[in-house]
Design a protein that fits this description.
The protein is mostly beta strands. A hairpin with a 2-residue loop joins strand 2 and strand 3. The model has no long low-confidence stretch (mean pLDDT 84). The site of zinc ion has 9 residues, from loops.
Amino acid sequence: MGKIEFAGCQYVRNQTQIVELECPNCHEPDGVEAFVKEQTTVGDSVCAACGYVLPEGTVLYGRDQ
Ligand SMILES: [Zn+2]
């Protein structure tokens, strides 16, 4: 039986990440904490400052890093 190995960065890139985003409503920096997978949000994300809901499936551009 071989060992299971993780493929480093390639593996990590496919995981869901928590990303802090500027709120598109009130423009609070890092106001929205979103779960992101492959640059698309997973589940609704709520702004901590104004309560704006960023809906699931929102595609983030230019946030690759
Ligand atoms: Zn907001």
